[in-house]
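Let's sit down with a protein and look at its sequence and fold side by side. Please make up or recall a protein chain and show it to me in full. Label the sequence line and the structure token line clearly, so we can match residues to local backbone shapes. Go ahead whenever you are ready, and we will take it from there.
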Amino acid sequence: MTLDYFYGQAGELFSFYRIPKALFQEPRFQNLSTDAKTLYGILLDRMSLSAKNGWLDEQGLVFIIFTIEDVKRALCCADNKATKLLRELEEFGLIERKRRGLGKPSLVYVKNFSAESSKSIFQNRDFHDSGGFKSASQDPAKSRCNKTDENNTEKSETYPFYSEEEDGMSKREQLEEYFSQSLEVDTLLRLCPDDEDTLYQIVDLLVDTCATNRKMLRIAGDDKPAEVVRSRFMKLNADHIQFVLKCLAENSSPIRNMKQYLLASLYNAPTTMQLTYQNRTNHDFAHGSQRG
């Protein structure tokens, strides 16, 4: 295929996605992938259209609807890549998703990337608690640019689930909806079709554990405050579940108590996954150096 040159002002006849230079020039965005930066430009373009069409919520904030399928079409990528890119933008505070449940697509709020707003990048995440839930991947402790010591996360946090019904949904139904969204169960079912039964077992276990009224829970032989366990579980994402499924498949020892095994695996997944990948990286680096 032979393409022609641009002559004069011909280049101005076309429409373009605008990606802010700040995403490439400012140190705070240096770990943001190029694909995520591209997606942010696409979402920014869509947001300007939403603003023109008056797509505002009850607080006057502009939102867009941009699903996993939309990301796949826009960037010609697979489910897993599209999911990770949206999560990456959330971790950097560049977008915020409001879960609506009941099969409805999430509302996406494109956040202001400018320096003036960077100081409060994670401070205004509660504006949409009514009718929706916080995404687990929005937690700043999980951001690449905010390295948090896993040993200092043993503290309870408050989540918007109560014993009374909200919007006609019981506490258990709210938790089921939360984990269905935060763990991206539909995507996991497509990626891991052979693990369907285990996936549903994991979701049920997470719901049961987070819905309990007990003050202490036994995890890996130790009694831990239920709020600490709940806090950890509410931060899990699809990557953690895939890691647990992989560990389960590779385990050759008999499992006498599957419930306790899964509880321990889920509770320790963030730390264990990080250490496993770090050890693998160190091993590959060491062997690569030896070959050199």
About this structure: Strands lie at 95-98, 107-110, 216-219, 222-225.
